[in-house]
Amino acid sequence: MATSWSKTTDYLCECSETSCVEIVELANDECERVRSRATVFVVVPGHERPEIEKVVEANEGFMLVEKVVAVEEIIEEDPRSDEPGA
Q1: How many Å apart are CA 49 and CA 43, to the nearest integer?
Q2: Which residues contact 11 (CB under 8 A, 6 or more apart)?
Q3: Residues 81, 44: Cα–Cα separation, whole Å
Q4: CB within 8 Å of 50: residues ≥ 6 apart
């Protein structure tokens, strides 16, 4: 029996809202392209924060944002970074 592989994958929105659990659906080739850029994050449209990031790409399903403040500062302040397995 052949395994059916999905052409898309669901990802958790990578916005700065710690309680966000919205899903972004990416085509597998889009995911590879996004993950090749270490400073780019995938967010649900409307979840971008212009005070800390700039939009580098936008479409109907998701936005790619790049942090304009030091990513290390954001990670240090994110309570999710203290969670086990994070």
Answers
A1: 10
A2: 23, 24, 25, 26, 31, 42
A3: 21
A4: none
Per-residue confidence (pLDDT) for residue 39, from 0 to 100: 82
Sign of the alpha-carbon torsion through 39, 66, 33, 42:
positive
**Percent share of the chain, pLDDT over 70:** 72
List of residues 6+ apart from 18 with CB closer than 8 A: 78, 79, 80
Q: Sort 40 into a burial class: Cβ within 10 Å, 0-12 / 13-18 / 19+.
A: middle
Q: Tokens for 49, please give them.
A: 């924060």
- Cα of first residue to Cα of last residue in the chain, in angstroms, is 36
User: What are 15-51's pLDDT values in tens digits?
Assistant: 989 899 999 998 888 888 888 887 889 999 999 999 8
Can you read off the two tokens belonging to residue 21?
């659990």
